[in-house]
Amino acid sequence: MDPRGAGIRTVMSAPAQDTSSRQAPASQDVFAGVLRRAPPAQQLPFQYFQDRNKRWPFSTSAAGAELLQRLFADARKVVEIIDSTIQQQCAADDAARERVLSAGVELYARKPSIKNADVTWSQEEYRHIGLQREYVKFKSVQRFTETWACMERADARGVFASLASAAQQKREVRVASLGGGPGFELIAVREYFNAKYPGVTLDLVSLDVEESWRASAEGLGLRFIQWDMKDGGVARACGGAIDFAIASYVFKMYMCENDVADWFARELADITACLVINRDEKLQQGCELVQSRGVDVLKLLRQDNGRDDRQLVFSRDRTFESWTSATPMAMTFPNVPYEEHKTSSDRGHRGGGGGAAGGWRRDGRSQGGAGRPSAPPRDPSRW
Question: Given a cut of 80, is residue 213 above it in pLDDT?
Answer without folding.
Answer: yes
